[in-house]
Amino acid sequence: MKIIHEPLRYAHEEGHTDVCYSADGEHFITCGADGDVRIWSVDEMDDPNHTCVGELALSVCQKDDKIYTSTGNNEIQILTHPAGERDGVFTRATDPFNQIVICRNKNFAAVAGEGMSVTVMDLDTSVAKISLSDLGAPCLSVAICPNAAKLAASTGDGKLRIWDVESYSLLKEISCFPKVNSFANAKNLCRLDFEPKHGELLAYPLKNVVKLLNTTTWAEEELKCPEVAADFSVLQYSSCGKYLAAASLKGDFVIWETLKKTVFQTSKHDASNAICGLMWNPKGNGEIVYTDVEGQVSIMSNCSRLQPVDNEEISTEVEKVDENGFTENDVDFGDFLEEEKNEDTDRASPEVLDFGTLDTSSPGSTRRPRTPDVPMQSPFMPTSTPEHLDPRYLCWNDVGVVKGYGLNSGDEANQKTIEVEFHDSTFHNSMMLQNFQDYTMGSIGKGALAVANSSQIMVIPLAVSNKEWYLKVEEYEEIVLVAASESMVCFAMSNYLVRVATIFGTQRGIVSVPGPPVCMAAFKNALLVAYHAGPVRNSDQNIIIKLFKFEGLNVDCFELGSALGPESTLYWLGFSDIGTPGMMDSLGMLSLFPPKCNTWIPFCDTTKHRRSPGDGFFVTTIFESNQTIGGIRCKGTVYPGFVPRPTVCELAIEPPFAETATDKTQMEMNMFTWSNLNIQDTERKYKETALKIFALACKNDLDQRAFEFMQLVGNQQILNLGLKYTTKLNKRRLSEKLMDLAAVLQEENGDADDTPKSFHSVVSTTEMQMPAQAVIKPRVGKLSISKLTPKTKKTKQEGSQQDFETNTPISNENNLSAVNSQDSLFSEDQSVSDETLKAYEVVEVPRNPFLKKQPTEKARDDLNETKSLTPIFNPFLKKAKKTGSASPLSLTDKNAGISYETPDAKQKSTEVGEKRRLADAESEKPVGKQRKLNQFMFSKRQ
């Protein structure tokens, strides 16, 4: 017999509406968005009794002579039954209560709170027996087993949790529901229900199927209906436990026989509205009352089998009527057929004869428990919000924000639009598109905007916005992912293919991934694709990431693996601002794949920066060059809202070392980060931090740690500074070790310049000395007049000297160190005594390595030959002294006893002028101290 629906009756305003039967089955009670509670009579068509409890009523249930209803005032009020008069307040909280469920056999009530908590309360004393908080998301639904031994709840983070009430311990956690940030935004209510006899089976909806979870063995079974494609939202067992009713978001009703796991009846809502409330009549007469999101109420009849059934259909029913929990009005024919079944065992079916070997404690028991199935993660777009939200973000990255409005609206009259905002208004103006094609995916890059539905993609090049192009796929293909960058547009298909096109529409390639695509991101000519490499293993997603690099029409591929945590899912995938691949899992751990390391390295635990367990961090981009992560802090959810407009904040990139609160660990984290990532302007900080770590170890008398750290750094300049520090502290043994280490590094580097080892300064500069020049020195003593020459004055000799000398300081990328090649031409090592050097003696000029073009050998020979024939005078003397000089003691010769030399070339890196010294002095005297002259010299006043 088909299900019969009574005419729909108006009950409440449009919005969420809940319904329940009274314990005697003579009345049903509704509550809705208008804040009223109405008590209806089943047999009479009179107007109901109604009581206003507030601005909003979310849930209602009845026990004994009381009615419990949760209101928008964050409290549960008590009303009398059937009069409906106020009888006090059961409990209060800081957030609304989304559902109230009464325990069948005990006087307890389970309450699901918006404030991420679940509470079991005593109905007599209003005292909480157990309170579970910090669930990570708002609690949408709750269920308690008949004996109050187990508690189950569904939360907005998509998880089903089951606890043991006595020990407060979490028994099971399953990710199976769509994610949502609040009960008001939830389309799927994710209702749960325990089997009413023993409570070992828990029923919960999973898309368009219903799962039966054995809470003892954790084995799962499925109840399917091929005629229903919409997701189930609410469900409930009948009071006898033989039937299970479920309703979908499209108004579908399905009733299964739980023993046979077969569909008993199906039906449809007259207006195909989503069902938000459903309950069996406790009389066991096969009636179900339900409400929809339009605030209407109706009753279905003929929902169970009332006539006697044959022996085969009830052969598995072995328990007595009173143990099944039947009420007086229930009809059960097990006792009538028990005697006949025992006398006719010769004709009994094999199932009857073999039933004794099965576990009869539950009708859903199996011989061998199966491993519970964890669904594979569905495809998603990075930096986008779930599809069931409206409005929603299609993409949010470092270029701009793509918003979709009215994407889930079934009414064609509602206008569907896509809005694009750019962070930099000088880069491009905002855009508003009419979404006539129902585009549900979007991605924006520096080159183009790409939006797509399951069969078509539209690309708008940002350089010329009026040159959009379209591309349709075959009927048997379906677009599941889209990614755009500054030079290409990619879209992944349901048949594991990824098509690649240029910004203006040229198809440049196609690649295949060995599994269903999960997520995809593009950067310039690189593409990251995450896919399922196999089924779920021990609740761990088997996701692998591949990196495709396109050069012209060629393609190269690298497999990167993944860095997913235990029992987690992929949450974000993308590139940093300089092209380093990155990913983040649902546990909040963000990892990067530096090309230098060739492995995934965790660089930020976003959960360390949240204020409460329910908060999340919505990643938008990674600024690797600035050592920060850009994103949005989400309070009580993992996705940002629309109003008020979210504010983008930044988190520091810090690897999750142990004891992060200490200064030592902070410095170690910075050293590790600077050594592996490409971060700007870190060379000076790298040296300072390294010396601080070394000094901290020396200060604490940890010489072995200090020496070990210097070995890790392996830098000559830092080693020299550390050696000076140990010498100052009088640590001789450590100084000796550092000197030995310095000798080893000197041999390995080949006298390389001291440069810290980092990601962006790999090649160290080599110290180079200026070659010796030809020097002509007179025999007489001389006094330098460099201090008398103004520093800003540039002589002709200096100009001529710069023609032969090249000032080329060698430095690394961050200007760490420069080679000083501007040594004085009159340094001490080039001074020669008068006894060994004759006047006008010529020294051959060696090859100058600083000249861009070296003279040929013939030219050098000619130059040497000319110099040997022609006397060469010192170009640095203002006036060359003649060979036959007057007596040094002459009073008539103004040049007697003194010679003038020009100051050294004032080159860029020279800050100190020429020092005074005697011609034949072998040692340098302290500056400012009177020198002893070997001969009497003076200068004549002009």
Automatic annotation (TrEMBL):
- Report the Pfam families cross-referenced here: Ctf4_C, Mcl1_mid, WD40_WDHD1_1st
Q: Where in the cell? A: Nucleus
Keyword Ribosomal protein on entry: no
The source's domain of life comes to Eukaryota
User: What are the Basic and acidic residues biased-composition ranges?
Assistant: 903-927
According to its UniProt record, where is this protein mainly located? nucleus
Q: Which UniProt keywords apply?
A: Nucleus, Repeat, WD repeat
User: Start and end of every WDHD1 first WD40 domain?
Assistant: 9-299
Q: Where is this region: Disordered?
A: 340-385, 787-815, 879-942
One example of a Gene Ontology biological process annotation: DNA repair
Source organism (scientific name): Dendroctonus ponderosae
MF annotations from Gene Ontology: chromatin binding
What PROSITE patterns does the database record attribute to this sequence?
WD_REPEATS_1, WD_REPEATS_2, WD_REPEATS_REGION
- Name of protein: Uncharacterized protein
Biased composition (Polar residues) is annotated at 798-815, 884-893
Domain WDHD1/CFT4 helical bundle stretches: 663-744
The answer to whether keyword Nucleotide-binding applies is no
- Name the SMART domains for this protein: WD40 (SM00320)
InterPro entries for this protein: WD40/YVTN_repeat-like_dom_sf (IPR015943), WD40_repeat_CS (IPR019775), WD40_repeat_dom_sf (IPR036322), WD40_rpt (IPR001680), WD40_WDHD1_1st (IPR057646), WDHD1/CFT4_beta-prop_2nd (IPR022100), WDHD1/CFT4_hel (IPR048591)
Q: Taking every annotated instance into account, which residue ranges of this chain make up the domain WDHD1/CFT4 second beta-propeller?
A: 379-656
